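Continued from yesterday's entry.
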Amino acid sequence: MSDFVCLDQIDGTAEIMLKRPSKLNAVTAEMASALVDISRVVDDDPTVKVVLLHGEGSKAFCAGSDLNSLAQYPSLWAYRNRKEYSAAFRHLRKPLVAVLHGWSLGGGAEMALSADIRIAESNVKIGFPEIKRGWVGGGAATQLLPRIVGYGAAMKLLLTGDHIEASEAKRLGLVEEVVEIGQGLARGRAICSQLCEFRSVALEAMKSAVRASLSMPLEAGAQYENEMTTLCFAEGRHKDGIDEFFSRRR
């Protein structure tokens, strides 16, 4: 693990905190490796239903990759960033909620793109400045961002390297909610608490079916959804949900 990445569990929520506020939570090679390991731990833990990602401090969620680390360990960093690290959160089976505040740039913004729900505090600044440094990020922003905000908006952000603020991020659909400064973590926890009321198999099946819609033709996706429905019914506890529904109507 790493001294700069913290994992805690609150009931069914696994909270992952980037803990390097003096450096705007910039990710080192060591932190990247820890995030890969942690993502596997929480995804394999049957007591975890949902994952919450946030950053410590008041200035930044994550300012991206630590450039000193990148220069010191280029081969290790390239491997972890482009292979395992970039895919760590993207491949989570469990719902991922990200809370953004302050600077959320480069690799930090790319981590957030892998989230299923993004909450932003009103001081957030989101951007992908890699083009200004002469490279492509490697965290799948070129693939995820167009799916979230559309081709034109994605190209503008990626080609200019400019950052946007909370209101524009909300308008583009890059974040789902904007809250006041200091309220992001509480809101993220509230959402996670709500999701934890539901069955793990249903949460994972729902995420899988929706994600499939991004790559499958309509009819194939509909068939996959039916398979996920069958999976939920086969688990046997769907009757609890039906009974609860009717009990509330009495």
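--- second protein ---
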Amino acid sequence: MRQNQLDGIVSFIVVAEECSFSAAAARLGISPSAVSQSIRTLEQRLGATLFNRTTRSVSLTDAGKQFMERALPCVQELVSASEELGQSGETPTGLLRINIPRSAHLILLQPILRRFLDAWPGIQLEVMVENALVDIVGRAFDAGIRFGEMVDKDMVAVPLGPPLKTYIVATPEYLERHGMPDKPTDLLRHDCIVFRHNTSGQRERWSLSKDGEELTLPVNGRFIINDSLAMMQATLDGVGISWMVSGYVENLIAEGRLISILPDWCPQVPGFCLYYPDRRQISLKLRVFIDFLKQELATSGSTIARDSFAHQF
């Protein structure tokens, strides 16, 4: 590999991330003209235009998007390798990128965030909050957090807690108006709040079970949503009945703001997992993050989950 094959790639990635030559220059600590020249040289060498440039915006061309998909993970690997070598026997440093859905951020990460950063001052933590399931390798994340059933089989999955109990809930006012369901099929006649998955676009079916009998209900209703917090708020507003997991609703049930429906039919589901690509050795910064998160959740996880989420409402 020749040195000139690598020239300009880092500048390209930073411009693509910032969507601005001046912002990229500030981040790299060089002049905007130096960044522009670096990109021009790279484009000439590749024989392709990588950016659409106007006086107001900078965006990737199709060729630029394709190059970004290939180049970003490679550069991230080089950065991780240099950090791991430099951290041998030392404290972890560097950028740690985590992708996480909004609900998991509120339940798992937000309550322990300050303590983690205080414990490891050399780590810069970047958290991207996205409900959709993303390609963490292609987008150069160190790890992601999702429900265990959503994690691809080729990833290393680290359980962050036990399975979670599910709940079917509604407000007392809703049940007073529409009646309490006595059996699962009664739910088909109610206004259920339907969750639509961001990645697949599919409506979530409610999976119920009791004494070995399993049911999958295609519930329906007049409100469809793709965000757990918005679904919870709609439930509290009396819009309809929702199906949630533990960590979301226990305090609200205890306070009488929500009523548990058909509890004997509500099964457990796999809990949250942290997952990362199957590599021989993970970075020290990711290892200490995993250990810290597991320790915090082992000592006070259930309290963290209930208190951190319920106080949003």
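The chain is about 40% helix and 20% strand. Residues 23 and 203 are 40 Å apart (CA to CA). Will compare against the first tomorrow.
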